[in-house]
Amino acid sequence: MMVSDELLQEVKDYLRITWDDTTEDKRLKNIINRVGAYMERVTGTSFAFVEEDEAKQLLFDGTRYAHNNAFEYFQENFLGQIQSLQFKVAVADAESQP
Question: DSSP class of residue 69?
Answer without folding.
Answer: T
